[in-house]
Design goal:
2 copies of one chain form a homodimer.
Chain A lengths: L4 H13 L2 H7 L4 H15 L4 E3 L4 E3 L1 H28 L4 E7 L1 H5 L2 H11 L3 E7 L2 H9 L5 E4 L8 E16 L19 E5 L4 H9 L6 E6 L2 H9 L5 E4 L11 E5 L7 E9 L6 H12 L8 H8 L1
Parallel strand pairs in A: 3-4, 3-5, 7-8
Antiparallel strand pairs in A: 1-2, 5-11, 6-9, 6-10, 6-11
Helix pairs in contact in A: 1-2, 1-3, 1-4, 2-3
The structure holds a DNA duplex.
DNA sequence: CACACTTACGATATTCGTAAGGATT
DNA sequence: AATCCTTACGAATATCGTAAGTGTG
């Protein structure tokens, strides 16, 4: 037995029209072919569904019984197929992304806006989280992908490089280095440095690439917004990657690039589960991110321009 | 697009097993053939439903979405097909029959008992009604068939002869004709005759075949049970067909056949709608009636034996 | 290298359209 | 005679199983 949507559709068409020739036309079939579909259905069910003479076509008692359920059934089938088509065409769907706070606040919203314009039916979710929580959410399938740095354990994850993010010195306008065109790490000796928490990828990038022992760590906070306030209050300076510079557009703050030879960089990646395909909507989002990645990397110039 | 039950079943099998070879075996297909079914489904939906490497088979996001609805859908399909099979096999169904009161009380219950034993799942309905209401119910499709006589208007109806029913004289044991082996209509002159109502087929048969002007009509009632009482009270005699004789098994009543040459008969038919097929259950009932018709026709002997 | 999915390919079955057949009004 | 469903039949398509190919652990 193998009931098909085509048979159901033909049955309903004939039950409505009570006329093989018309029902066949509406089904885009020749009348004999249509007849064969009905016959195959009757044979599959083992019972005649229509009484037909050349002048009259009518449902048999069993036909009526079938007719009670068939429309709902076909409707369910077509609803399901329709849903799938909507997913494929991205008229519907969901994309969940995890991103480091710096990206979640700065670059990603612009991507979200573009994506929403392209696919207004797709529901977007954004989880701003520190590096490790980002990776956990990807690994556990809570999000489709993350935009983050590399973590300690990247097993089961697949990464694609997005950009490299240079670091900058943030200081108050009256700081001794405020008007340098660029600074060197050696110039920062004995400066009071305001750090982000240890869960932060910014902090981790810094620790991995730099010897900060010559600097004094004055404070450690969790949010960049807080850093702004602390610097303004004269409590120290900070080193942050380019992606976060929009936090520091302030008349009394200065942003000074680190010189080439003491350049520190944070590498950012798009992270997703290994060997797992993305949903159609997520794949479209992924594609958009990769296409737009030039708008955040190589990284520095653009952000400087934005700030000026 | 033509979704089929086979595709759904294969999909669910694979979603459960996550293994083409095993799922193929359980589907009684070779693995490549099974693979082709899955591919045809994916092609029909325009989206991959399974991520497969040689070592792992897993649902894609779209596959999961499909999986949310597919089991219910397949279940509905199989439920419908199952229902149809039950109707065909007469494990379920309905049969509604209309019958003249004489048959509804006497012969038909025995048929119902036999039918119920054969098909305990089929629900039987019996409408005992006078001739014209019987025919109306058939014509309007309220019942599958009727067991009745011929009416004035038989258009749209199809009849099959069931039996002929002889008439008998019913009188009290102390009546002058009580011990005759048979009586002639002429012997009934000036008798007081108890009639049934004009809607009754018994009355109509009598009127059509006999000149009753020599007899006095003393009373006219609607139910045979009442006739019994009236005869016992000495209010007259009655003429009734053989099928009703069980009403008159009473020590003080006598049943006397009418002689051959003044024989009156009531013809009984199975009546159904013209050009309309019966439901499977009704067809089985019809067949049983026709097979058992010898147990009521030619009519007389048996009833006489029963009465003795 | 062994297991597992895909591709290739020939055989069979199904489906389709055209044309002829048969029944009903 | 006209209408309309069924049957007949050849062509295109789909489905199946066997066997070879490919890729992954």
């Amino acid at each position: 037995m193998n009931l098909s949507a085509r048979q159901l559709k033909a049955f309903l068409m004939l039950a409505e029209e009570r006329h093989f020739t018309r029902a066949a036309q509406r089904s885009h079939l020749t009348q004999p072919a249509f007849s064969a579909v009905i016959q195959s259905l009757e044979e599959a069910l083992g019972v005649r569904l229509f009484d037909r003479s050349t002048r009259r076509v009518e449902l048999t008692p069993e036909g009526w019984h079938f007719y009670r359920s068939a429309p709902r059934l076909l409707n369910d089938i077509e609803a399901l197929v329709g849903e799938m088509r909507e997913l494929v065409s991205k008229r519907r769907g969901k994309v969940a992304v995890a991103a480091l706070p710096s990206l979640a606040a700065g670059w990603l919203p612009r991507i979200y806006a573009k994506f929403s314009a392209l696919y207004p039916g797709v529901q977007l979710t954004l989880h701003d989280a520190l590096l490790e929580p980002c990776l956990v959410q990807v690994r556990e399938g809570e999000v489709d992908m993350a935009i983050a740095a590399l973590g300690r354990d990247m097993s089961g994850l697949e990464t694609e490089s997005l950009c490299e993010d240079r670091f900058y010195l943030i200081c108050r306008g009256d700081h001794r280095l405020a008007n340098e065109p660029e600074v060197d790490l050696t110039m920062l000796e004995n400066e009071g440095l305001i750090h982000l928490g240890r869960g932060s990828s910014i902090r981790q990038s810094l620790m991995a690439q730099t010897d900060l022992s010559k600097l004094r760590t004055t404070l450690e906070v969790d949010h960049l917004a807080t850093v702004t306030g602390l610097i303004l209050a004269g409590l120290g300076v900070s080193l942050v990657p380019g992606m976060t510079l929009f936090h520091f557009r302030h008349p009394q703050l200065r942003i000074v690039p680190l010189s080439r030879h003491s350049e520190i960089r944070r590498k950012l990646y798009l992270v997703r589960r290994a060997n797992r395909s993305l949903s159609q909507a997520a794949a479209a989002f992924h594609e958009l991110v990769m296409r737009e990645r030039s708008s955040l990397g190589p990284g520095d110039q653009m952000d400087i321009r934005e700030m000026s």
